[in-house]
Design brief:
Elements (H helix, E strand, L loop, with lengths): L1 H8 L4 E4 L1 H9 L3 E4 L5 E9 L15 E8 L1 E5 L5 E5 L7 E4 L3 E4 L7 H10 L1 H6 L4 H36 L17 H11 E2 L2 H10 L2
Parallel strand pairs: 1-8, 1-9
Antiparallel strand pairs: 2-5, 3-4, 3-6, 6-7, 7-8
Helix pairs in contact: 3-5, 5-6
């Protein structure tokens, strides 16, 4: 948690995905809760809010676009100073930006049918118990996958642009971890480091949501 707060303060690019977004929100003063609406699973329309206009990561996205959702907890209150960028009917905080180069997204821009199939098979019994048909979820993602790849592939490129631009502009540092300090002369090294900046743990998160209460 301290490392996340430090990264935000040092403007180290961070992208928190699903549980990663919730950890980011919690670390920086927001509130996470069990969703009162239940699980969001499958491909659902995400609405970009007016505040997303001009955002380096999501500003070029169309107003409504499909995304993979697989969660039971949510960010109820974003961190102080955060800008909420996207929502769904069931979840008011689907994406937020904090500071210059920190984002949290509840949806899964990286996920395709292979990832989703592994998730639903791992929780097949629990999903059936909550009224979800795992085969239908997989089929839904498979049908949407070409559009998902096009839509979120461009987001990945914009994320790498954010990381590379930051690497050219400054030398990042965090007083709590030497691991965050990298020579600014090596943008390709930062492109590799971008992988460690993306925080995501769907299995731990969904398991927690299913088995609490």
């Amino acid at each position: 948690m301290r490392l996340l707060r430090c990264s935000v303060a040092a403007t180290v690019p961070v992208l928190g995905v699903c549980l990663g977004a919730q950890l980011l929100a919690s670390a920086c003063g927001g509130t996470v809760r069990r969703s009162p609406h239940g699980l969001e699973v499958g491909v659902l329309p995400v609405e970009m809010l007016p505040a997303s206009a001009g955002d380096p990561l999501l500003g070029a996205a169309p107003r409504n676009l499909p995304a993979v959702l697989f969660h039971g907890d949510e960010v109820a209150v974003p961190p102080p100073g955060a800008i909420v960028l996207a929502r769904t009917d069931q979840c008011a905080v689907q994406a937020f930006r904090l500071g210059e180069s920190t984002w949290g997204v509840q949806f899964h821009p990286e996920a395709g049918v292979e990832s989703v199939a592994s998730w639903v098979r791992a929780y097949e019994v629990e999903l059936h118990g909550r009224g979800w048909d795992p085969n239908e979820v997989i089929a839904e993602v498979r049908h949407a996958e070409p559009e998902l790849r096009t839509t979120w592939g461009s987001l990945l490129q914009r994320w790498l642009d954010v990381v590379s631009a930051g690497a050219r502009a400054k030398r990042y540092g965090c007083p709590h971890s030497r691991a965050w300090t990298r020579p600014h002369k090596d943008p390709s090294g930062w492109a590799r480091a971008a992988r460690s900046s993306v925080i995501s743990d769907i299995s731990t998160h969904f398991d927690s949501a299913l088995h609490r209460s």
